[in-house]
Amino acid sequence: MLIDSHCHVDFPELSGRINEILERMRLNGVDFALCAAVTLERFPALLDLVNNHPQFFASVGVHPDNQGGLDASQEQLVRLAKYPKVVAIGETGLDYYRLEGHLDWQKDRFRTHIRAAIESGKPLIIHTREAAADTLKIMHEERADKAGGVMHCFTETRKIAEAALEMGFYISISGIVTFKNAIPIMEIAQAVPLDRLLIETDSPYLAPVPYRGKTNEPGFVRHVAEKIAELRGIDLEELGKATTQNFFRLFPHAQAIAI
Which of 96, 104, 111, 201 has the most Cβ atoms closer than 10 angstroms to its Cβ? Predict the structure, then answer.
């Protein structure tokens, strides 16, 4: 069994061909996928999607670089997290790659999500890009370790990974690990303790080799798993078993639904 711990099947690139996506998941031994929310406006449609397909779980949150849309209060996030198939808060975090200027609003949003995760008892899905120092600082200040969670699509240094691991977080590796020049990510994939490792596609983006440059989808997480297993010198079955156990340990509400 394999699980895609982070995808966006509700995005336009994928939402119109769910049956095809589910079939490819089946053929590749991918039993479940967590569909991460990015806006409140799209959350109702995401919830409908996961409610209609037992293979999917959802999170609730507002992406750090989402501007101009609805923002979420702690109270609202906690309320929406009570839906049975919502297993996490996020994706949240900090992203300084695309945005410039005064970004305190982004930090405030991140703090709100952490507080909602602690109150709701649901783990965090954290996105950080060119903002690692501030991300860790806020995680420490807000006691994100009380909620736990995952650093998704990890592209930071080993030092940052170790800091997140010390707070009890998991590290999720995407299809980037299959790219020829992604040596630092390959090293992270080898170094993270096996019991703290997750795999993901972040589809429809970052398709792994041999699909690089094409639209990504949850079934392709098998290629991520195969590459990491190769790097670690273990077989795919062992990698799949470990990352599946890790997923359900981190997201116990998902395990309760999947049984």
Answer: 201
- Cα gap 80→192, rounded to integer Å: 32
Residue given tokens 């991140």 in the structure block: 110
pLDDT at residue 188 is higher than 70:
yes
**String of DSSP letters for 229-254:** HHHHT--HHHHHHHHHHHHHHH-HHH
Packing angle, helices 132-141 and 104-120, rounded to 10 = 40
In this prediction, residues 99-127 reach a mean pLDDT of 93
Average pLDDT rounded to a whole number, residues 29-36: 98
User: What is the Cα–Cα distance from 123 to 36, expressed in whole angstroms?
Assistant: 12
Alpha-carbon separation of residue 146 from 10, 98, 116, 197 (angstroms)? 30, 30, 11, 19
The domain 2-258: what is its CATH number?
Answer: 3.20.20.140
